[in-house]
Design goal:
222 residues; mainly alpha; three-stranded antiparallel beta sheet; 50% helix
Length: 222
C-alpha cells in the first residue's frame, strides 16, 4: 500500500492511537477528547502541538480515509483506534518504532529502544536495528521505505532515525559530523594529554625525593 504523506497532526494522531493502545488499554479505543489530550501532551512529544478537537477530528477522519484508523460504532461517543499494522502489513515491533518516531521525532536506536519500552520490549539493541533496517529497505511494490537513517550529527556518537510517513527527509540539508574514527581519536588524544601531564608531575616529585635522599645520605649523584 502506497500512502500520501501525512501531515504533522495526522502523524501525531496515529502515533497517539498506537501508544495509548498499550499504555491505557482499559480506555481504548480513544474518545475524541482523550485523543486530543494525547496529541497535546507536553511530555514525550516533539514537537509540542496545541490542536483543537476539530483539528484532531479532521486528522482522524483523514486517517480513516487512508484505512489507517477506525471509528468504533455503537457508542454515543465516537472512539478511534489505529490500523497501521494491518494496513501496511507490519509486525508489532515496527509499528511501535514508527509510533515513537511520530511522537518524539528523530532518535537513535538506543533512544528508540528505551522509549519503546511500554509499547514493545526489545531484547537488545541489535533487534531494534534489525527492524529499522527492514523498514528502511522496504520494497517499492509494498510502499517503499518507512524510515531513513540520518547523518550523524556533530558531537554525536550514534546516527538518528526518522520516519518517512510525512514524506521524504532532506538529508542533504542536515549538518554532518566528521568521520567517527576522527571523533574518537580526538577525545582519546585529550585523555592522553591529561595522563601525560599527570605522569610528568609525578616524575618531578620523584626526582625531588631522590635528590633529597642523596643529600641526607651524603652521597653524590653520579
Amino acid at each position: 500500500m502506497t500512502l500520501r504523506p501525512l501531515s504533522l497532526l495526522e502523524a501525531r494522531v496515529l502515533g497517539v492511537l498506537i501508544e495509548k493502545a498499550h499504555t491505557v488499554p482499559d480506555s481504548y479505543p480513544l474518545s475524541l477528547n482523550s485523543l486530543t489530550l494525547g496529541c497535546n501532551q507536553k511530555s514525550a512529544r516533539d514537537p509540542i502541538v496545541n490542536a483543537t478537537e476539530g483539528e484532531v477530528q479532521a486528522a482522524a477522519d483523514a486517517l480513516k480515509a487512508l484505512n489507517l484508523a477506525f471509528e468504533s460504532s455503537g457508542s454515543r461517543v465516537s472512539r478511534y483506534e489505529h490500523n497501521l499494522g494491518r494496513a501496511l502489513a507490519l509486525p508489532s515491533q515496527s509499528v511501535a518504532l514508527l509510533a515513537v518516531l511520530m511522537l518524539r521525532g528523530p532518535q537513535t536506536a538506543s533512544e528508540l529502544r528505551a522509549n519503546c519500552e511500554r509499547l514493545h520490549r526489545f531484547a537488545d539493541l541489535s533487534s531494534v536495528e534489525a527492524f529499522l533496517d527492514e523498514l528502511s529497505a522496504r520494497a517499492a511494490e509494498t510502499g517503499g521505505p518507512l524510515v531513513v537513517k540520518l547523518p550523524r550529527a556533530p558531537g554525536a556518537r550514534e546516527p538518528r532515525w526518522a520516519h518517512l510517513l510525512g514524506g521524504a527527509v532532506d538529508v542533504s540539508a542536515l549538518p554532518v559530523a566528521t568521520d567517527a574514527v576522527d571523533f574518537v581519536a580526538a577525545s582519546e588524544l585529550a585523555a592522553l594529554k591529561t595522563q601525560q601531564a599527570a605522569m610528568q608531575a609525578e616524575l618531578h616529585e620523584l626526582r625531588a625525593l631522590v635528590d633529597r635522599l642523596y643529600g641526607e645520605l651524603g652521597v653524590a649523584r653520579t
